[in-house]
Amino acid sequence: MPHLRDIPLAYLEIVMVGTRFPENVGMAVRACANMGCGGVILAAPERWDVEKARPLATAKGMQRLEAVRVVDSLSAAVRDKVRVYGTTARTGGWRQSVLTPEQAAEELAPLLLEDCPTALVFGPEDRGLNNAEIESCQRLVTIPTSGDASSLNVAQAVLLLAYECRKAVLRVTSAPSGVPAGDPAEGSRRITQAERDLLYARLRETLLAIDFLRPDNPEYFLMPVRRFLGKSTIRRHEMDMLMGICRQVNRLVQKKGDGRVAEKKQMFAIYGTR
After folding, report:
1. How many whole angstroms separate alpha carbon 29 and alpha carbon 38?
2. Which ranges in 98-140 belong to alpha helices (H)?
3. Distance in angstroms (rounded) separating the CA atoms of residues 179 and 172
């Protein structure tokens, strides 16, 4: 049986949004080194000072600390990811169907063993992820804590979730059957977050065209659709199928609209202004 320390999570990256304290980044980097995660991405950090992070990263995390990437938005951080999990301490509303760390890790393990780029997203220290940032995450994870102290230090949360992912990968690789073989019928790679965003944009356009979404706040009413599709890792050929369905629906809507315009013109030609 492979030892826990021999199983890296090279395709799992930690995304920290709007971080205020470089020291927390240093501790998160150390956690990534301990668990074998791919590294840390900072999305629009409030403050970033590598020298303040260095003592907390320690010598074990120094290589990953030097490799920390800084990008200007969460969407830029996760655009190439196949699966994105956001963390939240708040539930209710659209923050429903949240997973425990163990459940999220069980979903992530097969993807990591397929070398699929994945991300765990953590919000700012003072408020966590907002609703707009949550939209970039396909699944939500919450860590069960005492009601008297529901929020964790962000670096502690990073360590806890990375550890659960590592345990889940170990369980899969140590099973008698090994890593499950891929289904040949699946036929194509899993789509990235950037491709998923394109799909959501096309779905939004189509669902507005058929009056499924309310035009006053379409993003809010699209959220259940995003949550539903976020439960699965869509393959590229499946995305192409859904995009094709949307194109055909839009053509039919357009055709119907053109027919109504032609009918009105014909009626006007016959009856004039009467």
Report:
1. 10
2. 101-113, 131-134
3. 6
What residues does 224 pair with on adjacent strands?
none
C-beta contacts of 92-97 below 8 A and 24+ residues apart: 94/131, 94/134, 94/220, 94/223, 94/224, 94/227, 95/134, 95/140, 96/227, 97/140, 97/227
Cβ pair 109, 172 in contact under 8 A: yes
Which pLDDT tens digit goes with each residue over 213-267? 888 888 888 888 888 888 888 888 999 999 999 999 999 998 887 656 555 555 5
- E-only strand ranges, 23-117: 37-43, 69-71, 83-87
Q: Which pTM value belongs to this model?
A: 0.76
Distance CA 101, CA 195 (A): 26
Tokens of 80: 């190439």
pLDDT tens-digit map of 174-226? 766 544 444 544 568 889 889 989 999 999 999 999 999 888 888 888 888 88
Nearest to 210 by CA among 263, 250, 244, 248: 250
Q: What is the distance between the alpha carbons of residues 266 and 212, in angstroms, rounded to a whole number?
A: 30
Which 3 state secondary structure label does DSSP give 233?
A: coil
Q: Contact 26/53 with Cβ under 8 angstroms?
A: yes
CA distance 211 to 249: 12
Tokens of 139: 């699944």
Question: What single-letter amino acid sits at 48?
Answer: W
SS3 191: coil
Q: Report the alpha-carbon distance of residue 217 to residue 75 in Å, rounded.
A: 21
